[in-house]
Amino acid sequence: MWLLTEACKDAQLSHDILEACNLKLESSKCKYHAIHFNFDEEGAPTMALDEVNPHPIVVTDGEGHQLEMKHQPSNVEIKYLGCFKAPDSNHWQMQAITAKCDDFARIANTLSLIKLEAHLMYQAIYHLSVGFPLPMCYFTFKEVDRAQKKAHRAMVAKCSYNHKSSLAMLFGPTRLGGT
Q1: Is the dihedral of CA 94, 97, 100, 102 positive or negative?
Q2: Separation of alpha carbons 106 and 45, rounded Å
Q3: Most exposed among 30, 94, 121, 145, judged by the fewest C-beta atoms under 10 Å?
Q4: For the chain, what are the domain ranges?
């Protein structure tokens, strides 16, 4: 409970800093997760799923109006700067990455790109947009590979490589023959 009380103070401080800069919180985007754990007989933790708000986080603006931030259960994701984050799930983020990769595969397959253009599209657009949320996620290599498989195959074909070439070889270090 002490951490949530401190979170309230931090939220008020952030609000006050924004207000001092003539900015305002967007109330529809003010959400938070409150994570706590239950422990079994051996002491092993499991994340508790709170459907109800354990402690409200409320900020007061300069005019005295109160804004209560919305509590989200730990399995419901919140979108932060284009990334879906939830302590207990990465389901929506994986769906977003898969959809983005499938779109790039469709684009690469329908556009008439020369090898250089396809390589630039991969390096300058695809790699950056798909890779952006990955440092904030906890996916296995197999999950990410499955999501990107169609896009990688389409890009490989547009770069004039055999679409059945080993992706490990193609995406490996250039000193070992990768691209």
Answers
A1: negative
A2: 43
A3: 145
A4: 2-76, 91-176
